[in-house]
Amino acid sequence: MIAATHCNTLQHASTHCNMLQHAATHYNTLQHTATCFNTLQHAATCCNTLQHTATHCNTLQRSATLCNTLQYSATHCNTLQHTATHCNTLQHTATHCNTLQLTATLCNPLQHTATLCNTLQHTATHCNILQHIATQHRRG
User: Fold this and answer.
1) pLDDT (tens digit, 9 = 90+) per residue, 100-133?
2) What is the pLDDT, as a whole number, of residue 107?
3) By the 8 A CB rule, do 14 and 61 touch?
4) Rounded to an integer, what distance in angstroms lies between the CA atom of residue 68 and that of residue 72?
5) Dist CA 62 CA 70 (whole Å)
6) Could you tell me the sign of the dihedral formed by the alpha carbons of 39, 44, 45, 47, in that order?
């Protein structure tokens, strides 16, 4: 925000300098029509001041242009940083997803084995019952 305010100040100064350059041109025209030496001498001093101001204004205009470029670069950089952060998050999520996928792949055979084990356990229980009945029947 400070950079934007600074840029606006520089642009305002640039506009003011353009007006001063225009005034300096107008003043130079008046200088040629002046008849009094003191007036010409005073005008020359003013003209030098205006020329100095115009030079300073050109410097401010270049600074304003550079400031705008830097502001654009900063905005672009912030966008890239946000994108990089988002990318890192997605990368972390992808790694986590791969881990879950691997776990699921390992879990499926174990689930199948557990189902088979439950079936065998049920069969063993049924077999024990039948064996108990057979034993009771032989005794009886």
Assistant:
1) 899 889 888 888 988 998 999 999 999 999 999 9
2) 85
3) yes
4) 6
5) 12
6) positive
